């Protein structure tokens, strides 16, 4: 029991949590205006919600040991489909969002299919996909919209993107203005992804595919289908992030998703998701994203320019990865006794490992 | 002899040359001959120098099984630093021309050193250094454009031509020849390829893979520096957008040119020809007045197609070899039985 608690305390997630708490305390002590609900906290939490979805979009491909360079462009594509459904077809909110998610999913599925079918490195395929979309999206916008933006808003559009719980009143009591309504769908998505990886067979198979494609194939997992699935999910999540961003800024533009790529890697990796695949952490992704965005907000409050922020993000990524590396080496050291054990237990052991390490 | 002609006809470079010839003819017809008059002709080659250089820069890292996301950022910082030094600090122009080369090499060394030291995936290391360098570039020039009037002698070289061909294009061709010679004849070049092809075999042959990675990144950085120098000489000014659109062309040229992404091979001629094809697409785009976004779309699609086709061809070849081997094995088995 005690060792279980100690194990929790030494995870990167706990460390991240402590850093975030200390950082927030320092910022609040120096700039009390940080606690302003409607003007500082609500926008901050909105961007945390959006970027967590972006992080999850990257996390699902990292879980099979792939990467998705095109997250931002898939977000732009999904948002574009939603924008078209609202603007040209006048669909209601839910139908338009669903159309966007399907669009993102199709692009992701196509990417996954190309990777699984040709066996080419996911980096190159998603890079090429990102440039194809980078060309396609602005072209469609300029062909179908005036002023390169879709601005028609269905009922509930602004409520999703801009309302906080202060606008949700029941029994004469209204919620806090610091928490935007958007957190509700995002929490639902986080729970769904966490359940996928911890409770379902498919999630396990994704992780096993990430640990070792060969071992996964030998245990009868259709790895090609799992690769397509992971990329499809990535496309859907990216599209969701793009649509949520559009609701919060109020219109659909081709520049949606421009900032997603770096953040999408920083969040999961800070949170302990392994680049090599086979291990993911949903809460870790949330905490990683929260840390970088709190730093960004803090710097903004202190009036520090965007260029310092970029430099800082790069440095954080390098440090986090060196830490990741150290952790991996330590993990391997901890496993050396097992390594001398007979090898046939290997696939089973990696499955066990994922059971222990995925937080519920 | 017959076979070698057939293999020449089937090679990637021949296909690319054919595409270039057809594309040039079509462009010539579409522009009613205007494309071949001196000024468009010169412009075409003038803006071909940078794509060739960054394609080669990427090719060198790919050859050792690495990649360099920071090509644009290294070039951007190198150009920005040199421009600011010449404009604000009054640094003489010859020194300003050396600065990008030094900055590029140093940045490449840091990349390689980080990859070797931390053993982190080269993708992530260069993603991180790219972000840092982009921040640095913005810090150097922020929103202003440093005018080329500050380095008039360099700008003159950028405009100079020999036999109608821009000097900077010839510089990039010379660099390409040097890279090709280095990979073919020097020990370092051969060991880079060995490390990229099979690190374990290279290690057993006494080659330091760490050294190969560092050398490749440093050389890649140096070529980015040369590309930065060429940009300084040829652009009307240097601002934060320099290098911003280098990433795709840098990957497109070697991939379309036939470099194996798994490392261990180079194709200098293919890379140069592929860069020319990309430049043709861009010129055609301008000729037909399409949105610049189209170029990205076309090149992205071509890269995907090339990669997929190459893989399909490889699988087919492996299957054929496997079938041959199986046939041989069964025939020897029959022989043994009859014996």
Supply database-style keywords.
heterodimer; A: 360 residues; mainly alpha; ABC transporter involved in vitamin B12 uptake, BtuC; two-stranded antiparallel ribbon; 15 helices; 2 strands; B: 339 residues; 2 domains; 78% helix
Secondary-structure topology with pairs:
The complex is a heterodimer of chains A (360) and B (339).
Chain A: H1 2-9, H2 12-30, H3 37-62, H4 71-87, H5 93-118, H6 122-144, H7 157-162, E1 169-170, E2 173-174, H8 183-199, H9 201-211, H10 213-218, H11 223-249, H12 260-270, H13 282-301, H14 306-340, H15 346-357
Antiparallel strand pairs in A: 1-2
Chain B: H1 2-10, H2 12-30, H3 38-46, H4 49-63, H5 71-88, H6 93-118, H7 122-141, E1 146-147, H8 152-159, E2 161-162, E3 165-166, H9 167-185, H10 187-197, H11 199-204, H12 209-234, E4 237-238, H13 247-257, H14 268-287, H15 293-338
Antiparallel strand pairs in B: 1-4, 2-3
Helix pairs in contact in B: 2-14, 4-9, 4-12, 4-13, 4-14, 5-6, 5-7, 5-12, 6-7, 6-12, 8-12, 9-10, 10-12, 13-14, 13-15, 14-15
Transmembrane segments (chain A): 12-30, 36-57, 69-89, 95-116, 123-144, 177-197, 227-249, 269-294, 301-323
Main location (chain A): membrane
Keywords (chain A): Cell membrane, Membrane, Transmembrane, Transmembrane helix
Low-confidence stretches of chain A: 336-360
Q: Average pLDDT of chain A, to the nearest integer?
A: 81
Number of helices of chain B: 15
Please tell me how large the radius of gyration of chain A is: 21 Å
Structural class of chain A: mainly alpha
Tell me about the largest β-sheet of chain A. 2 strands, antiparallel
Q: How many separate helices of chain A?
A: 15
The oligomeric status of these chains comes to heterodimer
Biased composition (Basic and acidic residues) (chain A): 349-360
Subcellular location (chain A): Cell membrane
Transmembrane segments (chain A): 12-30, 36-57, 69-89, 95-116, 123-144, 177-197, 227-249, 269-294, 301-323
Main location (chain A): membrane
């Amino acid at each position: 029991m005690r060792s279980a608690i100690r194990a929790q305390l030494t995870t990167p997630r706990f460390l991240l949590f402590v850093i975030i708490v200390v950082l927030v305390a320092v910022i609040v002590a120096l700039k009390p205006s940080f606690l302003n609900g409607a003007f500082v906290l609500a926008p901050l939490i909105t961007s945390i919600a959006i970027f967590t979805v972006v992080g999850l979009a990257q996390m699902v491909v990292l879980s099979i040991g792939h990467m998705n360079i095109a997250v931002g462009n898939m977000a732009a594509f999904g948002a574009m489909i939603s924008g078209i459904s609202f603007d040209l077809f006048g669909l209601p909110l839910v139908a338009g969002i669903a159309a966007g998610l399907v669009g993102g999913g199709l692009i992701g599925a196509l990417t996954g299919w190309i990777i699984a079918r040709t066996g080419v490195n996911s980096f190159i395929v998603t890079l090429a996909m990102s440039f194809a979309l980078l060309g396609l999206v602005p072209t469609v916008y300029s062909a179908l919209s005036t002023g390169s933006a879709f601005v028609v808003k269905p009922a509930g559009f602004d409520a999703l993107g801009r309302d906080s719980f202060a606008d949700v009143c029941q029994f004469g009591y209204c919620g806090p203005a610091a928490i935007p309504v958007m957190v509700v769908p995002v929490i639902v998505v986080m729970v769904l992804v966490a359940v996928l990886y911890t409770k379902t067979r498919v999630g396990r198979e994704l992780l096993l595919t990430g640990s070792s494609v060969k071992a996964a194939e030998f245990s009868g997992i259709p790895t090609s289908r799992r690769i397509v699935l992971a990329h499809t999910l990535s496309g859907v999540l990216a599209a969701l992030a793009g649509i949520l961003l559009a609701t919060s800024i109020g219109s659909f533009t081709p520049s949606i998703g421009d900032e997603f790529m770096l953040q999408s890697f920083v969040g999961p990796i800070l949170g302990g998701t392994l680049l090599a695949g086979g291990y993911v952490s949903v809460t870790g992704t949330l905490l990683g994203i929260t840390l970088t965005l709190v730093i960004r907000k803090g710097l903004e409050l202190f009036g520090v320019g965007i260029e310092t922020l970029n430099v800082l993000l790069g440095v954080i990524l390098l440090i986090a990865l060196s830490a990741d590396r150290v952790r991996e080496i330590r993990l391997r050291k901890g496993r050396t006794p097992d390594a001398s054990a007979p090898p046939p237990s290997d696939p089973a052991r990696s499955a066990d490992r994922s059971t222990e390490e995925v937080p519920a | 002899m017959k076979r070698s002609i057939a293999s020449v006809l089937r090679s990637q470079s021949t296909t690319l040359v054919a595409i270039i010839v057809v594309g040039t003819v079509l462009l010539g017809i579409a522009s009613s001959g205007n494309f071949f008059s001196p000024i468009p002709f010169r412009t075409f080659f003038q803006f071909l120098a940078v794509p060739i250089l960054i394609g080669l820069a990427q090719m060198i890292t790919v050859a050792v099984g690495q990649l360099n996301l920071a090509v644009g950022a290294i070039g951007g910082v190198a150009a920005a630093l040199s421009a600011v030094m010449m404009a604000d600090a009054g640094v003489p122009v010859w020194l300003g021309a050396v600065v990008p080369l030094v900055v590029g090499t140093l940045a490449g060394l840091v990349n390689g050193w980080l990859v070797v030291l931390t053993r982190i995936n080269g993708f992530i290391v260069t993603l991180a250094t790219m972000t840092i360098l982009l921040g640095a570039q913005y810090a150097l020039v922020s929103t202003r454009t440093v005018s080329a009037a500050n380095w008039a002698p360099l700008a003159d070289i950028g405009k100079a031509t020999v036999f109608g061909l821009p000097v900077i294009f010839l510089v990039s061709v010379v660099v390409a020849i040097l890279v090709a010679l280095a990979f073919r004849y020097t020990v370092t070049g051969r060991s880079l390829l060995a490390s990229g092809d099979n690190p374990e075999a290279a290690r057993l042959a006494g080659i330091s893979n760490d050294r190969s990675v560092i050398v490749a990144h440093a050389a890649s950085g140096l070529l980015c520096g040369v590309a930065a120098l060429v940009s300084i000489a040829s652009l009307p000014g240097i601002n934060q957008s320099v290098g911003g659109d280098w990433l795709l062309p840098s990957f497109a040229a070697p991939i379309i040119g036939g470099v194996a992404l798994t490392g261990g091979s180079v194709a200098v001629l293919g890379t140069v020809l592929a860069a020319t094809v990309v430049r043709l697409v861009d010129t055609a785009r301008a000729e037909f007045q399409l949105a610049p976004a189209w170029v990205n779309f076309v090149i992205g699609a071509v890269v995907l197609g090339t990669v997929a086709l190459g893989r399909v061809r490889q699988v087919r070849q492996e299957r054929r070899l496997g079938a041959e081997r199986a046939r041989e094995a069964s025939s020897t088995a029959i022989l043994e039985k009859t014996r």
